[in-house]
Design goal:
Length: 165
């Protein structure tokens, strides 16, 4: 398991410097660390967070949006009609609720379809693991800056330490 502090340090060391998103239990430890460091701006909706990331990029920042995959549907319009069309990059860190059918019923459809959904809208993605974290973050930083497109890292339950037991 990746310690939340270590994950946040790695994200910041990779050059990401603007953080927004919507609360989530799987990412709770990461959100807690970002909040303690006073670098996290919470959003009430995922589409708002993605729009804030666009503004942050236009203002010279390298943004990260943290969300649960159930909220990905809320963000799709902004991602497709703003980020993808105008080549505004951001890193999407998306908790993968419903992975392999192991979750509450309301998370199963998005959990099953999320990778295909990202492929359909042409957002490159990887699934974060402890062993690949450094490479995944290098890839994310390089892709968002060279291609000027959003990319996603999927985070399964138990990969990054959370604040809940």
């Amino acid at each position: 398991m990746i310690e939340s502090d270590d994950f946040v340090n790695a994200i910041q060391d990779a050059g990401f410097d603007f953080f927004t998103g919507v609360p989530d239990t799987i990412l709770g430890g990461v959100l807690d660390v970002l909040s303690q460091r006073r670098v996290y701006i919470p959003s009430v909706r995922e589409d708002e967070a993605v729009a804030m990331a666009a503004g942050a990029f236009l203002g010279g920042k390298v943004p990260v949006v943290l969300m649960q995959n159930s909220g990905l549907g809320n963000a799709l319009n902004v991602l497709m009609s703003l980020h993808l069309i105008y080549r505004i990059p951001c890193l999407l860190i998306i908790s993968w609720r419903g992975f392999e059918g192991n979750d509450a019923p309301e998370h199963l459809v998005m959990g099953h379809t999320m990778p295909q959904l990202m492929e359909i809208i042409r957002i490159a993605h990887r699934t974060l693991s402890r062993d690949t974290m450094a490479d995944d973050l290098r890839w994310a930083r390089q892709t968002v800056m060279e291609q000027r497109l959003p990319v996603a890292l999927f985070v399964k339950k138990g990969v990054v330490k959370t604040i809940q037991p």
